[in-house]
Amino acid sequence: MTGPRKNVAPAQMRAAVLAVAEWLDDPGASRPSRAQLADAVRTTARTLAQLAPGNSVEVRVPPFVAVQCVQGPRHTRGTPPNVVETDPRTWLLLASGRTDLATAIDDHRVTASGHRAVEIEQFLPLVRA
Description:
This protein is an alpha+beta fold. It has one domain: Nonspecific Lipid-transfer Protein, Chain A, CATH 3.30.1050.40. 36% of the residues lie in helices and 14% in strands. It is built from five helices and four strands; from the N terminus they run αααβββααβ. Strands 2-1-3-4 form a four-stranded mixed beta sheet. Helix 1 runs antiparallel to helix 3 (34-51). The protein is globular and about 40 Å long. It starts with 9 loop residues before the first helix and ends in a 16-residue tail after the last strand. The model has no long low-confidence stretch (mean pLDDT 93).
């Protein structure tokens, strides 16, 4: 990440998730616009980083965002030892409590490498929409 970021207000994050909620509940529904999807993914990921400040786990939701979170050892070069990566829809399902991390990992919708990666689960869901 470059430079300091403004904190995400809970109402801002909730509104962004509500804008894509129909698609989360029904994958056959109209896909949200790229801007709506990007807003929901970025605000939820940045909220996670606010709730769990640190640099020991990197959460990646390509192509929209990567954030570092969870207190612990900081990595400075190369691939971090603790990484969670998923697609935008799965991330938003996790962030909104529509699925849990263990299920998403078991279903191969989330990759979690490193023994600390699953620590993000204690901060999920971020919002119930």
